[in-house]
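Can't paste images in this forum, so I'm doing it all in text. The chain is below; anyone willing to post the predicted structure tokens underneath?
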Amino acid sequence: MCSPVQAVRIIFFSSSRSSRFLAAARPLSLAENSCLTRPFKLNVTIPPAMVWTRREFMRGLAAAGLVGVSATSTYASLVEPRAYELTETDIPIRDLPPAFDGFRIAQVSDLHHSLIVPHADVERIVRLTQSLNADMIALTGDYTTARASYVEPCAELLGRLSAPAGVWAVLGNHDHYTDPELTARALTRARINVLNNANTTITRGNDALQLVGIDDWSWGKSDFARALRGVDAHRPSLLLSHQPIVLDLPQTEGISLILSGHTHGGQLRLPLVGAPVRFVNEFKYLRGHYQRNGTHLYVSRGTGTVGLPIRFGARPEIAVLRLRRTPEQS
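Text version of the structure:
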């Protein structure tokens, strides 16, 4: 039996001969060939520290798991809840007037100003939103979580927002937990236009766009007959609704685009599992862009948290929706 060193020497020098003296190459000698075709013994000693018993292995695995859980918990509670993502999505709108091609709407949803979403967080969200220089700002509900003492401070911060086509708002389910009348009054005092089952028209030059807002559907406060009164079904229209499930209602057929929130994008989305909590059909539309029967829906992941002060796999979002004319119009 030859040693590993002998084998390496034979291979090296033989290949060296072949490359340098290809014309004079010779076959390996019988001894060399015999050495390479027979197994050789490699003596390696594993240090005692590398030999684990099954119990030690399981302990190490458990320790690694605890480290992973600790790191994930730290990220979910301290990092992701404030890792605001600025997104921009093009939405093709049929029959969109030329003056509104490229019209940018910044959407802020689900602030949940509370003990776990403090003043500094809301202030930063307002600053980031204003920096987007959008043509219009849409606020789609849940400004506070449940305590009336947070309503005025939140409205005061939101009052710093401004846009050429205005700042428009609707109420969410948590605004009804708090105090809907108080919330609407505070927003109005902050020069924010509250569309509570109402509609208006936004103009640019000679072109116009219909804007509709409805009160929270889950509280049974949505009055579509009142909100849509005077709206021309043959002209483009936008709808602000805290609850995205209204996309499935017959009353929203013919609406060009619905902007919603409520779901927090799942807030806690586990790998291979997704959001662990869903409420019947409320979270059928969880996040992002959907389309049904010609109506577009955008569901914002929101910026705040409720229940637990954590987010995982659902970064808080400030969305920009850019309206575009459809290809046949271009």
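The chain is about 30% helix and 20% strand. The first strand starts at residue 85 and ends at 93.
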